[in-house]
Amino acid sequence: MTNQSIELKGTSVPFNQKVAFGIGMFANQMFPAILGIFMVVLVQDLGFPGWMWSLVYFFPRIFDSITDPIMGFISDNTKSKWGRRRQYVLVGAIVMGISYVFMWQLFKENSLEFNFWYFFIWSLIFYLGLTLFSVPYVAMGYEMSNDFHERTNIMAIAQWIGQWAWIIAPWFWVIMYDPDWFASAEEAVRELAIWVAIPCAICAIVPALFIKSESTLDKAYAPLNLKNVGNSLKQIYVSFLEAFKIKAFRKLCSATFLIYNAFNTVASLTFFVIVYKLFNGDAAATGIWVSLFGCLGAIGTTFLVIPIITKLSKAFGKKNAFLIAQGISIIGYVLLWFLFVPGKPWLYILALPFFSFGIGSLFTIMMSMTADIIDIDELNSGLRREGIFGAIYWWMVKVGFAIAGALSGVIIAFVGFDPDLVTSDQQSAVNGLHAVFCFFPVVGTILAMYIMKDYDIDEEKANTVREELKAIRETAIKE
């Protein structure tokens, strides 16, 4: 770990640097967005049972969550003329792109067991690449500015660009199941994976090439060698404990865990709920309605939620902006219970502007808040640990995401849903999926709002911390 703090960059970040960071966010969002869509093929077309679905969701993401804090430590302590982050972002982008292509080369004529293990192993490689990329990439964003509102601006631009992944991704539903494009969905994912991986890998490389960083060759960082692996793991553990001693950070991680993973538990059920609730299980008759759900929600996030949440944050503070946005999202989830009406799919559109405020505002606010907390940690410890804090934050997200993925498989099994049956033959199972889809995220959101209600880092406190850090640095320079 560092034994000295680094100088924070100036409060104003050039727009081209914000865009370079945001382009990386597009890749960071696009890979998982398409992954969630392609995963349906495992059940719908390749015959994976619910327990296999749960395992391929759960274990690669648990592996990812284990490697994240290790990568955070490595990133924070790298001595290089390229700085602490860029080289890992570059390598991670390449590994992600290559493994993503191979992961989806699945053939129905192979045995179920072969397809399971093939997908499982390549998933582990993909998630290793994701760790190499995402942990140092996120840390880049935390250290770009020390200004309370500029941090929100950076994350808002990044999330705005990243949201285009969720606008584009839903249309893959149409392409995958349109016989004019592909003979089967399994054939579709084999080819589409290539068209996803190459541009996404290029986007992931952009921050490594264009975001400025200073040489760290002269920094007194903890040694990174095999001899010190045991000590490094101990320091990672100590860093975890120190981070979680900060009450505000515990709240941030817990609230994100609840909202993001309650959402993701049901997000993977979207295809089944729309096809079977609205179209009696006829995927071909669904047309664009599955795609529109995700696409319109992402458009709402891009052009409505992110601009509004950025202004609310400046007007009322980050915590209040968070509470307002999540309250609006609850309205959206409740509306979806009443607006999924068979034969009238257009009705659900009325709920999407409200629904989008939940997940759409989450990372713009939470990543900005995390940057403020990193300042407090530096004031307490004298160490600058964006990589560790980013890794811990996303560790909470990814562990929860793994649980959410496994839980979605459990839900499918629990309600007795069978994708081979039409709705009229399993009405109670489809109704069960619909109920979980609408109300499970409401529970997570309410709990998160309760946790965040007394979050106490406002603009005044953040600015006070920044001034104290500035005074400490000036004193150190004089000495």
- What's the quaternary structure here? single chain
Low-confidence stretches: 1-10
Mean pLDDT: 84
Work out the radius of gyration.
Answer: 22 Å
Q: Could you spell the SSE succession in H and E letters? A: HHHHHHHHHHHHHHHH
Q: How many strands, which pairing sense, and closed or not: the largest β-sheet?
A: none
Assign the structural class, choosing from mainly alpha, mainly beta, alpha/beta, alpha+beta, or little secondary structure. mainly alpha
Main traits of this protein?
479 residues; mainly alpha; globular
Describe this structure in words.
With 479 residues, the protein is mainly α. It is built from 16 helices and no strands. It has helices at 15-44, 50-76, 86-103, 112-142, 148-168, 171-176, 185-210, 229-244, 247-267, 270-278, 289-316, 318-339, 352-381, 386-415, 427-452, 459-478. It is globular, with a radius of gyration of 22 Å. Residues 1-10 have low confidence and may be disordered.
Short description:
This protein is mostly helical and 479 residues long.
Helices and strands in order:
Blueprint: H1 15-44, H2 50-76, H3 86-103, H4 112-142, H5 148-168, H6 171-176, H7 185-210, H8 229-244, H9 247-267, H10 270-278, H11 289-316, H12 318-339, H13 352-381, H14 386-415, H15 427-452, H16 459-478
